[in-house]
Each structure stands twice: as C-alpha cells, then as structure tokens.
Amino acid sequence: MSVQLRCVGTGDAFGSGGRLHSCYHLQTDKMQLLLDCGCSSIAGLHGCGIKPDEIDLIVVSHLHGDHFGGIPFLFLEAKYVSRRSRPLTLVGPPGLQQQIEATLESLYPGAIGKGVDFPVHYRQLEPETGLQFGDLKLTCRPVVHGSSPHVFGLRVEIAERVISYSGDTEWTDELLELAAGSDLFIAECFSYGPETPSHLDYQTLLKKRQLLDCRRLVLTHLGEALLERLEELELEVLKDGDLLRL
C-alpha cells in the first residue's frame, strides 16, 4: 500500500514567509486524513488539488487556531459547496467539539443552522490508549506548549509506515518516545536558538538528533528569523506544497 504526505501548510501562527498554517495531508489507498487543520487550510487544500469532502479523518494536536481553526471553514465548504455526505471523524484534545462549534458560531452566526448533512464523529485523544481506524493506528504523547494541559504529539502507524508529528512543543523527552522507530518525524522548529518558550529550536534539535530514533527528520513551523537563515541549516526543512512518498 502506498503512503504519501502532502505538506498543505508548514507555517507558524503569524504566517511567516507567506506560509500557511499547520496542515499535513496523509493519503493511502484506503484513507485520507489531516494532521492539524489551521485557519488557512481550506485554501491550502484547494491549492494542492485536494478535495476537502474526500477527507475521512482530521487529527488535531492542540486547540490553537493555527492548528484547528480551519475546521469551521471545512464545515462551511461541506455544507454549501461540496454538499458532503460521507462521514467525517474528528480526533483531538478534550473540548474539541465545543471549540469548533463556538468558533463556527462566532465567525458565521447561524450559518450551519440545524447542523450539517453528513455524520460527524468526535473521538478524544488519550495518551494511555491508542485509537484504531481501519488499518490505521493513532497514538499520542503529551508535550509542553504554554500552560495548556492538553497538547499532544501524534503518531500514525499505517501500511507498515510510522509517521510522527511533534505538534507545538518545547523540548521534552516525550519526543524520544514519539519519534522512536518512525519512518518520518515532523518536528516544529520555530527559532534558531532556545530563546522562545514553548517551542522547539534548531540548535536543540541539531544537538538531540542522534537521540531521535527516526529514519528521516524534517522541520516545520519556522519563524521569520529562522527562515532568514535557511541556507545555514543542515537539517531538512519542509515548505508548503511538498510531497513526501513513504
């Protein structure tokens, strides 16, 4: 079974470098899913030629707008444009459903009315247990990003491939468990040095690289200052639109 990852959005919360918010489209012969769906994701999906109504599963690492804020727009597109009928499963931290509904109502009061015309299923991330969706196994690890107690790194196992994603976090040894045995580890890297709390930085990741048991490490979520130093970096950096075949 083939597995491919399209980097729909690789930017930070500020759109540094003109990059879109976090969104990674994972596709196999049987399933399409998103790892995070930031505010600009609907535009990014269309730009990559990905049909939003064909996405089966969206997994949200934490409840910051640049990671979940595109879901209300996806709901609007599903109701008024693509007329979606297939089910959609949303997985994330506690409060995901309430946050999506509140954001949608705040941005477009009454737009959804009595709801959408397709089944929506919510599942909650739990570090102690994994979730199974057909051939896909999803697990998570708690990471450290600000004061929220519900911030997770994500790990997807499918078709004999393992894709891990840090979400937003400063360094924590949980990342070693998250990356262990991964074919691909997508790590956020906001700054060059450790001057920004709650985020990973390039110097730390370069120092820790040998401890990360992953076949391929790629960096995302770069801030403006780090983008200005791209030519100096030894580690691989993602950009919007990149296609990775695993």
Structure description:
This protein has 246 residues and is α/β, with parallel strands linked by helices. The chain has a single domain, classed as Ribonuclease Z/Hydroxyacylglutathione hydrolase-like (Metallo-beta-lactamase, Chain A, 4-Layer Sandwich), CATH 3.60.15. Helix content is 20%, strand content 28%. It is built from 7 helices and 14 strands. The chain has helices at 41-47, 65-68, 71-80, 96-107, 174-179, 202-208, 224-227, and strands at 3-9, 23-28, 32-37, 57-59, 88-92, 120-124, 131-133, 136-142, 152-158, 161-165, 184-188, 217-220, 236-237, 243-245. A 7-stranded mixed β-sheet has the order 6-5-4-3-2-1-14. Strands 7-8-9-10-11-12-13 form a 7-stranded mixed β-sheet. Helix 7 links the parallel strand 12 (217-220) and strand 13 (236-237). The longest helix is centred in the middle third of the chain and has 12 residues, at 96-107. The radius of gyration is 17 Å and the shape is globular. The N and C termini lie close together (10 Å). The mean pLDDT is 96.
Q: Could you write a compact summary of the structure shown?
A:
With 246 residues, this protein is of the alpha/beta class.
Q: How many separate helices? A: 7
* Corresponding CATH architecture: 4-Layer Sandwich
Mean pLDDT: 96
What's the N-to-C terminus distance?
A: 10 Å
CATH fold-type name = Metallo-beta-lactamase, Chain A
**Which residue ranges are poorly predicted, with pLDDT under 50 across at least 5 consecutive positions?**
none
The whole-angstrom Rg is: 17 Å
Question: What form results from the Cα inertia axes?
Answer: globular
Q: Which strand order does the major sheet show?
A: 6-5-4-3-2-1-14
Please write the string of helix (H) and strand (E) elements: EEEHEHHEHEEEEEHEHEHEE
Provide the β-strand percentage band: 25-35%
Helix content: 10-25%
Number of domains: 1
Say which CATH homologous superfamily is assigned. Ribonuclease Z/Hydroxyacylglutathione hydrolase-like
Helix and strand composition category = alpha/beta
The protein's oligomeric status is: single chain
Number of strands: 14
The top level CATH class name:
Alpha Beta
Characterize the main sheet: 7 strands, mixed
